[in-house]
């Protein structure tokens, strides 16, 4: 029963944070202030009332349309809010109420927001990597006895990607992706960030090849969403995957 209560709490809290993520997703690419500008309709500029800002429910009650100009509101709003709530529940069930769980929840939100932005613009705003870097520093300080794991994680994947960036003159990898692997490496440690990178590559290969075949998209892709998916999976199930892999070798 306690798990159900806390799961509901984390879900609702995640949905509220998801509402703020929508603000970041829409305003950062447009260079709008995320704190000084009041929430408004992106079509007519109508300043939204408090009852038009209730996560999930306002979208449903308004029928997905602006109350003023009746233009359609992007489905992104409820999807991001619900997705963030689900991510928070998954992290809670995996980590419980702990410093690690809190850091992973915040990282999951950053990964979700930067994934949507990168998917649209093929650019990861540096602010998200700075935020994850701060989370990584907190993780290092709170688990200082294992500090070397996190420091090595800072360079384990990003160092390789940076060399790839230099050799290909930026054609194979974007700078934002390199920074993302560096900051998440500081947060997760070297073993889990390697798992995250490998998972991201596998997911990217499967999904993008499918998109190339079905939607005829080009070879260029936004790598951030796939890396973010790999990071989240590594956060939750990475240790089990590492143990499973090592146990396979132990049988030989």
Please characterize this protein's 3D structure.
The chain has 252 residues and is mainly α. It is built from ten helices and no strands. It has helices at 2-27, 57-61, 76-95, 99-121, 126-142, 147-156, 158-167, 175-188, 190-214, 224-250. The model has no long low-confidence stretch (mean pLDDT 90).
Instruction: Characterize the main sheet.
Output: none
Beta strand count: 0
The amount of beta strand, in percent, is: under 5%
The arrangement of helices and strands along the chain is HHHHHHHHHH
Q: What sort of overall outline do the alpha carbons produce when their principal axes are compared?
A: globular
Percentage of helical residues? over 70%
What does the radius of gyration come to?
19 Å
Distance between the termini: 44 Å
Alpha-beta classification: mainly alpha
Q: Stretches where pLDDT falls below 50 for ≥5 residues? A: none
Number of helices: 10
> How many structural units, i.e. domains?
2
Look at the structure and give the mean pLDDT.
90
């Amino acid at each position: 029963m306690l798990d159900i209560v806390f799961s509901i709490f984390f879900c609702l809290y995640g949905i509220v944070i998801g509402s703020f993520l929508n603000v970041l997703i829409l305003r950062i690419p447009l260079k709008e202030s995320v704190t000084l500008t009041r929430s408004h309709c992106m079509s007519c500029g109508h300043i939204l009332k408090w009852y038009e800002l209730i996560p999930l429910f306002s979208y449903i009650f308004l029928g997905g349309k602006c109350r003023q100009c009746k233009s359609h509101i992007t489905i992104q709003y409820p999807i991001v809010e619900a997705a963030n709530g689900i991510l928070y529940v998954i992290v809670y069930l995996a980590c419980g109420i702990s410093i690690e769980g809190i850091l992973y929840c915040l990282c999951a939100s950053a990964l979700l927001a930067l994934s949507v932005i990168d998917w649209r613009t093929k650019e990861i705003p540096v602010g998200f990597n700075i935020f994850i870097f701060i989370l990584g520093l907190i993780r290092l300080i709170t688990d200082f006895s294992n500090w070397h794991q996190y420091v090595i994680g800072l360079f384990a994947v990003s160092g390789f990607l940076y060399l790839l960036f230099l050799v290909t003159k930026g054609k194979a990898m974007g700078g934002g992706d390199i920074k993302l692997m560096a900051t998440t490496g500081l947060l997760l440690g070297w073993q889990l960030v390697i798992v995250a990178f490998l998972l991201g590559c596998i997911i990217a290969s499967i999904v993008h090849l499918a998109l190339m075949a079905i939607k005829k998209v080009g070879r260029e892709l936004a790598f951030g969403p796939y890396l973010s998916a790999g990071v989240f999976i590594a956060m939750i199930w990475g240790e089990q995957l590492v143990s499973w892999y090592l146990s396979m070798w132990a049988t030989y």
